Amino acid sequence: MSRMMFLNTTASDIPATRKFFSELGFEFNETFSDENTLCLIINDQTFAMLMTPARFQDFITGGITDTSKEREVLIAVSAESRDEVDAIADKALEIGGSPWQDAQDHGFMYGRSFRDLDGHVWEITWMDQSAIAG
Question: Which residues form the VOC domain (predicted)?
Fold first, then answer.
């Protein structure tokens, strides 16, 4: 069975968040987006629901993680090449994201990470599938 995935987290400024991820090349499902929520399309089965804290609070009990101090999740997205990893990470830093950790280079796998406008960590990763296939 093929499963869909919906990652849900906060975005304090929906218009700024839309601009940030648009500039990184992402698109949105407008059916599930409004002034309080963005439905970021990762692929045809995976979406990130980015909600204002007030809207997010409608779905949870307890508090919302302070991303300036702690991590609640690491969001990893694949890239087609090492160059694409660098292009996305560099662009994220250029348009307002902040650095998180140093690049990780394991030869067959390469990744970089950044924090988005709300401090959520996004990892962009490339893997040489032929190196791990057998």
Answer: 3-127
C-alpha dihedral, 46 to 76 to 97 to 103, nearest 10°: -160
CATH number of 1-60: 3.10.180.10
127 Cβ contact list (under 8 Å, min separation 6) = 78, 108, 109
Closest CA to 16 of 35, 29, 31: 35
Average pLDDT over residues 31-43: 97
Q: Which residues contact 122 (CB under 8 A, 6 or more apart)?
A: 75, 76, 77, 92, 97, 113, 114, 115, 116
- Residue 80 structure tokens: 């087609």
Helix, strand and coil in the chain, % to nearest 5:
25, 35, 40
Of the pLDDT bands very low, low, confident and very high (cuts 50, 70, 90), residue 69 is very high
- The band of 132, judged by pLDDT with boundaries at 50, 70 and 90, is confident
Pairing of strands 109-115, 98-99: antiparallel
CATH architecture label of 71-134: Roll (3.10)
